[in-house]
Amino acid sequence: MDGVDTNPAASVEGCSFQPLNPEDVRACLYKAVDFITDYYTSIESMPVLPDVKPGYLRNELMASPPEHSAPFDVTMKELRTSVVPGMMHWASPNFFAFFPSTNSAAAIAGELIASAMNTVGFTWQAAPAATEMEVLVLDWLAQLLRLPASFMNRTSAGHGTGGGVILGTTSEAMLVTLVAARDAALRRSGSNGVDRITRLTVYASDQTHFTFFKACRLTGFDPANLRSIPTGPETDYGLDPAKLLEIMHADFRAGLVPTYICATVGTTSSNAVDPVGAVADVAAMFNAWVHVDAAYAGSACICPEFRHYIDSVEHVDSISMSPHKWLLTCLDCTCLWVRDTHRLTDALQTNPEYLKNDATESGMATDLKDMQVGVGRRFRGLKLWMVMRTYGTTKLQEHIRSDVAMAKAFEELVRADDRFEIVVPRNFALVCFRIRACGAMTEEVADEVNHVLMDRLNISGKAYLAHTVVGSRFTLRFAVGSSMQEERHVRSAWELIKKTTTKIIEAEEIMQ
Ligand SMILES: Cc1ncc(COP(=O)(O)O)c(C=O)c1O
Questions:
Q1: Claim to verify: residue 73 and residue 19 sit in the same structural domain
Q2: At which residues is N6-(pyridoxal phosphate)lysine found (predicted)?
Q3: For the segment 83-105, what is each residue's pLDDT rounded down to a tens digit?
Q4: For the ranges 78-87, 268-277, 345-354, which has the lowest average pLDDT?
Q5: What is the pLDDT, as a whole number, of residue 161?
Q6: Which of 164, 286, 428, 467 can pair with 138 through a Cys bridge, CB separation 3.0 to 4.6 Å?
Q7: For residue 48, is it within any domain?
Q8: Torsion of CA 360, 363, 364, 367, to 10 degrees
């Protein structure tokens, strides 16, 4: 067909198909922008959790692909009537689950423009501005995080051996650094082959995101050599370096090769923090790679008062954090910095004939394909640059501080009601709490009661929370930080929690 039919009355016969006809682009995007702004205007009144069952969408939309063109308005109507009602509204100010998926006007604009340009930045030559913007914005963010100069891109004037890359997810950051650490360990043990891979061991606390152990399996580590180190309340669920040392020593004595440690700053379950400096000290004894996963909490470290959580980062090999979680930059945007980019590129570099070019050969250009799994790559740096350029450090810090202040206010409300307990100390903007077991209510019954509370809150559509298990107790997670959230949303969620709890406890007492 012709271009997008934005005018149902317009004749399309005889036109050639021009999918990027500028006037069609303008018409479609105006409609999309109207949709987005209407969506944000009404999102607060929509149930956070949709009332749909698996498979619902197949009954709503055409079963077979449409053969003929349709006015763009028809497409938008189906989006409104069939898709929106099945959406979990992560952008809702009543969303308190998981970690927030933050966003901003500048980020959406950046994503839109990057999609329009649709550049494929595998090498500097293929996308000079996109490559240089990614390098620059990573250096900017590294400066906000006060990462040592050694993590700055090696092409930046006066800076060191390191550099960064923007990936889609933390899992990819783990995967590429695991590959680099694996290859370095194999080289050190005198083999580039895979025969010694069965001797390599990796370490992380039992609170580490499960995706780490998946990345280890994908990298070829023997599942028997993945050490998940138990944590407990005595370290607030952070990794105990003494236990780490003991386990690494035992492996070393058994002829194994300690290769990689993943330390988390802000675990998914309860926001526990592994002690970066102490972990790096232990790793140094075995020449093991240390990666810091600060997917969520890394954003907070742009504020001086939270920076201490990554103190000693100069002694680790790599660190990653995801601005798509808490730095107002829409999915997907995970920033990875490594102290020695050569260790990454040695493992991931490719040099096919058809990508050879003068810039690469000059050694002056960064080819970002050599720091990731795939070849093609999106212009992710643009949205991050637009966020940082538009809001500036001050506003970004304000945003983090305001979320933390709201979480603190919520925590105080919970503490003031003796039916509840705070399960672990709050570090950032996540509050882990539960209805406490008291009187005739055992811990096991309290687990069930908390589960019922979560289900009732979520079904109400007025708030959405997720749970975790801390020290074998069912715990509610209240994650503040959705970009449209204000204190009134936190307060009304608390009112709902209290009211629902009263009803559940009364019913529980009647049953006894
Ligand atoms: C601390 C931490 N690490 C890793 C992940 C996994 O991130 P991704 O989905 O980007 O791979 C998460 C996700 O929430 C996380 O919180």
A1: yes
A2: 325
A3: 999 999 999 999 999 999 999 99
A4: 345-354
A5: 77
A6: 164
A7: yes
A8: 40
CA of 295 to the centre of ligand 1 (A): 6
- Token pair for residue 71? 């006015």
pLDDT, tens digit, for every residue of 181-238? 999 999 888 766 667 899 999 999 999 999 999 999 999 999 999 999 999 999 999 9
Domain match, 439 and 497 both: yes
Residue 496: count of CB within 10 angstroms of its CB:
16
Residue 100 lies in a domain: no
The CATH number covering residue 272 comes to 3.40.640.10
Full residue range of the structural domain in which residue 416 is found: 393-511
Query: Which residue has a Cα nearest atom 10 of ligand 1?
Result: 169
Q: Is the CB of 289 under 6 A from ligand 1?
A: no
Q: With bands split at pLDDT 50, 70 and 90, how would you rate the model's confidence at 440?
A: confident
**Could you tell which of 210, 216, 268, 430 is best to mutate to test the pocket of ligand 1, judged by most ligand atoms within 8 Å of the CB?**
268
- Please give the Cα distance from 298 to 145 (Å, whole number): 8
334 CA closest ligand 1 atom index: 10
Contact 366/200 with Cβ under 8 angstroms?
Answer: no
Element (H, E) at 202: strand 200-205
Neighbours of 133 (CB within 10 A): 20
Torsion of CA 22, 23, 25, 31, to 10 degrees: 160
Within a domain: residue 111? no
Smallest CA separation from ligand 1 atom 16, residue: 268
Let me know if residue 273 belongs to a domain: yes
Q: Whose CA is nearest to atom 13 of ligand 1?
A: 268
Q: Is the confidence at residue 2, as pLDDT, over 50?
A: no
Q: What is the pLDDT of residue 363?
A: 85
Compute, in angstroms, the gap from residue 265 CA to the centroid of ligand 1: 11
Question: Both 420 and 369 in a single domain?
Answer: no
**Which of the residues 56, 354, 391, 464 is marked catalytic?**
354
Determine how many CB atoms are found less than 10 A away from the CB of residue 130. Answer: 22
Q: In the chain, how many domains are there?
A: 3
Residues 267 and 395: their CA atoms lie apart, in Å, by 25
What distance in angstroms lies between residue 143's CA and the mean position of ligand 1's atoms?
A: 23
**Which residue type is seen at 306?**
F
Name the maximum alpha-carbon separation found in the chain: 80
CA of 322 relative to ligand 1 center, distance in Å: 8
Give CA–CA dist 187/231, Å, rounded: 33
Q: What is the pLDDT of residues 8-42, one digit of tens each?
A: 444 445 568 999 999 999 999 999 999 999 999 99
pLDDT higher than threshold 80 for residue 7: no
Say what the pTM is.
Answer: 0.94
Put residue 481 in one of left, alpha, beta given phi > 0 → left and psi -120 to 50 → alpha.
left
Question: Which of the listed residues 378, 407, 424 is the one where a domain comes to its end?
Answer: 378
- The response to whether residue 264 sits with its C-beta less than 6 Å from ligand 1 reads yes
Active site residue 354: yes
Which residue type does 330 have?
A: C
